[in-house]
Amino acid sequence: MANSRFHDLNLSNATLIITDIIILFSIFSFGTSYLAEIYAGNSLVYGNAYFLIHLFFFTLPIQITLLSVGLYNEKLRENFRGIIVRIAVAIVLAYILSFSLSFFVPIPPLFGASKEILYGTTFIGLVIARYIAIKSNYEHLGRRKVVVLGAGDRARLIDSSMRRKSDRVHFELTGFIKINGDKQGAQLSAPELVLDEPIEKYVLENGIEEIIIAADERRGNLPTESLFNCKVNGVVITDIIDFIERETGQIAVNHIYPSSVIYNNQPKQHWFLSFFHWLFNSLIAILILCVTWPLIIAAAIAIKLEDGILAPVLYSQTRVGLYGKVFSIYKFRSMKTDAEKNGAQMASKEDNRITRTGNILRKYRIDELPQLFNVFMGDMCFVGPRPERPQFSSQFESDIPYYSQRLNVKPGLTGWAQLKYPYGDGMEDAIEKLKFDLYYIKHRSFLLDILILIRTSEIVLFGKGR
């Protein structure tokens, strides 16, 4: 299985999660014990039901908000000041979330001002812990030494898919071993190894923990016996496609073998499960609607103020959904009213058709709130590939291998591709997004959907929308 861990979860961020849980438990336990002596007569005793309930409503919201602001992403490109800001945002959101939950699950309030004191102390504790983690290069925990068997086109997938240093925090690439059948090309990012000894000897002497098979022509060229000897000595043998899938969260569509495509002929979901899936999405939509209705009203007013009282607030477009079904999608209008006077065209990053109000709506994903109606109608889910317009979808299907496999699941308001890939507007960007969409289709599950929903909060909170 290419995904030996839970998607982005690995030893480094798992260590952070456990450390934060210990910090939260310690602060709550020692803090409430100390404060209990100040506020006599309270019923909070270590280990009793009252203590455990408050511990749950203190710890869980903080863990969720830390995840939602991207603090468990070791590839986060942020300086320490930015980390502090994110921790502060997470603490404030956790406080609000905990306060909101108290309306649905009534529990006795904590004594005095202890709740505010606990959250303030937690902020300090998390900042100190994150400073220590960064200084100790926590992201290198569990880092493996790997060697690539092959030095041709397939081996160069590592360089093209993982260009940045942050993309390689989980492994140390010692080099590429050239074998017969490899195609010549551009220079590789690590040394090309020419061995005058058996591969297993080099692997064992240099502490190699994983061999990546990236031969351009495998038949008759793989040193099968040497690989077997490495395998029995505990060295992991991984195909290059599985390695890239595991490390980047995408599938290299241009290099997979047709026999490895497992997306075709997926059975339709049973109506009973489909109903509960719709019900789950609808409940989330109602919850979001209850929270965001002031933003919806503000967005409508802002559009009218900029474009005039007669200007339309909403617009609709046809999109391609599940199994190719065409439906109408609804959004707040973020472009000029004559944006497509010259015909349908994809929006670009610096599109001069976007209004000033539209820039803000897009940046914080507010323009997509009317799509809650599409969720109620069952045309969309919260998580899935973004629905494309029919004319562009047809073009991509004819030009990009496996593009039609996106239609095997319902489209979504957010998705794995939106988390992993920045905004794009061309064929190359469509290919890159497809790699992430296919990864999601292959691994989709309820827990992965929850992870994507929580991490989408980072996009909204820090204005990373398109």
Automatic annotation (TrEMBL):
Keywords: Membrane, Transferase, Transmembrane, Transmembrane helix. The chain crosses the membrane at residues 12-31, 51-72, 84-105, 117-134, 278-303. Residues 279-461 form the Bacterial sugar transferase domain. GO terms for cellular component: membrane. It comes from the Bacteria. The keyword Glycoprotein does not apply. Pfam families: Bac_transf. InterPro entries: Bact_transf, EPS_sugar_tfrase, Sugar_tfrase_EpsB_2. It is found in: Membrane. One of its GO terms (molecular function) is phosphotransferase activity, for other substituted phosphate groups. It is a multi-pass membrane protein. Belongs to the bacterial sugar transferase family. This is Sugar transferase. The lineage of its organism: Bacteria, Pseudomonadati, Pseudomonadota, Gammaproteobacteria, Vibrionales.
